[in-house]
Amino acid sequence: MMLDGNILASAxxxxxxxxxxxxxxxxxxxxxAVILVGEVPAxxxxxxxxxxxxxxxxxxxxxxxxxxxATTDELLELVGSLNAREExxxxxxxxxxxxxxxxxxxxxxxxxxxxxxxxxxxxVGRLLNGFPMExxxxxxxxxxxxxxxxxxGISVAGRRAVVLGRSNIVGKPVAAMLxxxxxxxxxxxxxxxxxxxxxxxxxxxxxxxGRPGFVTPEMVRPGATIVDVGINRLTGEAELERFFPGDxxxxxxxxxxxxxxxxxxxxxxxxxxxxxxxxxxGVGALTIAMLMSNTVKAARLRRG
Length: 304
Known about the structure:
This protein is α/β, with parallel strands linked by helices. The protein is 42% helix and 13% strand.
């Protein structure tokens, strides 16, 4: 069974739109401020999609675009001003930042109550301490994964979950969420020995390591749920043929754009699964929907 992220994202956005209307009936409008430092084409596209989603759902939004030369202190001043504004409920700092900027210092400067990315140490601590999800701001991609599992009727409690990747953005938080949902969780990384033996034990396998097609069929337990978080761009004919042999649709798209996307899982492994997330159209589709959900949640929590 393919887990269609686009369908689930549409459902979540519909719920967010209803919540925004209810908020306005109570005299306030959820607001999101996005900070994009410098000119990074990929980030600009992503930020514009966030602003567009806000407009569609009735959320107030504004975009701040400091020059790439902006110093850490200048950016801290901007964050401080947004922290102080009552109409701003969520602050998102688009990553990555220029190398000269102290990213950790900037993320920690965001008011935890407005940290809609869920990166502030206070919010991370609440997640690890098992606070109810409705009471915390959690990272959007991991939260989207959990929503996908829940809404698709895939049970987590008592199951063996294996997470490939230990990033602060996906790996660690999704492992914490799975643990809080009573799964038995193993985190694997570049130093893990006998990796295939561990992944073959997984009822739920989450791949978030940024390596195209790394998870092969031999690494998957038949009947497992595969959650592929990776988004890797392929530009070579050999890669296209390796991962999508005989796929006319992929080849046509490749011929038109000069590239195609593949996740961290070899598509051949999906045939062994009971359910899986495609790339594109899987987990990635949920991230912006969960950002919108977090913004509304932050507005509600800030007002008690």
